[in-house]
Design brief:
about 40% helix, seven-stranded parallel β-sheet, alpha/beta, Rossmann fold, 9 helices, globular
Length: about 260
C-alpha cells in the first residue's frame, strides 16, 4: 500500500493499562486488528492473533508485538468454523495461560453495485465470516474467560449509514451492532463488558482489495476531515474499552469516522 498504513504513533506512550492481560484478536494480521494488537502490547498485554491465510502479514504483526517485549501467538484458520475457534481458544490458554479480552474484528467485504448480482455464495460467505465467526469465537472464548473480562466487536459506519455497493457487508455490521447490545445485556451478571468500535473510512489493506482505483484515490474525502483515517487513530479506542478507564461502559459503540453524523 502507498502510503503504508500507520499502525501506532511513535509518540504513543503505554502506561500499563493492560498489564498482565491476555487478548485474542481475530483478523489481527493487518489493518485495525494489527493496530489493536500493537497498542495492547505497548500497554502490557500478551496477544494471540487469529488470521485466515495471510501468514506473512501475521508474522509482521508478531514482530511488532514482540518488539514491545510481549508474547504473541499466531493461529491460522477460519473463524467461520466453530471447531477451529474452540481449538484456537484452547491453544491460547495452553500457551499464554489465560484469556481476559476478546476482540472480534475479522471481516470480509465484496463491492457490488447491483444487489441482484450478489450470489448466494457471496452472501453466505460474508455472513459466515462476519457474523457466524463472531458468534463462534465468542462462544469459544466465553468458555474460558473469567468473570470481569471484556469483549470488543468491530462494527462499521456502514451499520448506521448503509452503503450502496457493500450491501451484504453493511447488513452484517448492523447485526454486529445489535449483537454488541444483546451480549452486553446477557453477560452483565458476569461483569463481562461488551462494546463496539465503528470505524469510518480507515486506510487498511481491505480498501485497495475491495474497490477500483478511482474509489481508492478519493477514499475518505467525503468526511469532515477530508481524508481517510489511519489504524493508529483507531487502536487507542480498543485500549480504552479494554481497560479500567471504561469500567462503567457496556453495550456502547465508539464512532471513529472523521466526522460522520450517525445515530448510535
Amino acid at each position: 500500500m502507498d502510503p503504508r498504513p500507520v499502525v501506532i504513533r511513535s509518540s504513543y506512550r503505554g502506561s500499563g493499562k493492560l498489564e498482565g492481560k491476555v487478548a485474542i484478536i481475530t483478523g489481527g494480521d493487518s489493518g485495525i486488528g494489527r493496530s489493536a494488537a500493537v497498542h495492547f502490547a505497548r500497554e502490557g498485554a500478551d496477544v494471540a492473533v487469529l488470521f485466515l491465510d495471510e501468514e506473512r502479514d501475521a508474522r509482521d504483526t508478531r514482530s511488532m508485538v514482540e518488539a514491545e517485549k510481549r508474547r504473541c501467538v499466531l493461529i491460522g484458520g477460519d473463524i467461520a468454523d466453530p471447531a477451529f475457534c474452540t481449538r484456537a481458544v484452547n491453544q491460547v490458554i495452553d500457551e499464554l495461560g489465560s484469556l481476559h479480552i476478546l476482540v472480534s474484528n475479522a471481516a470480509e467485504q465484496h463491492a457490488n453495485p447491483d444487489i441482484t448480482e450478489i450470489t448466494p455464495e457471496q452472501i453466505e460467505r460474508t455472513f459466515r465470516t462476519n457474523i457466524f465467526g463472531a458468534f463462534f469465537i465468542t462462544q469459544a472464548a466465553l468458555r474460558q474467560m473469567p468473570d470481569g473480562g471484556c469483549i470488543l466487536i468491530t462494527t462499521s459506519v456502514t451499520a448506521y449509514e448503509g452503503h450502496e455497493t457493500l450491501v451484504d457487508y453493511a447488513a452484517t455490521k448492523g447485526a454486529l451492532t445489535t449483537l454488541t447490545r444483546s451480549l452486553a445485556t446477557q453477560l452483565a451478571p458476569r461483569r463481562i463488558r461488551v462494546n463496539a468500535v465503528a470505524p469510518g473510512p480507515i486506510w487498511t489493506p481491505l480498501i485497495p482489495a475491495s474497490f477500483p482505483g478511482e474509489k481508492v484515490q478519493s477514499f475518505g474525502a467525503d468526511t469532515l476531515m477530508g481524508r481517510a483515517g489511519q489504524p493508529c487513530e483507531v487502536g487507542p479506542a480498543y485500549v480504552f474499552l479494554a481497560s479500567e478507564d471504561s469500567s462503567y461502559i457496556t453495550g456502547e459503540t465508539i464512532h471513529i469516522n472523521g466526522g460522520r453524523f450517525v445515530t448510535s
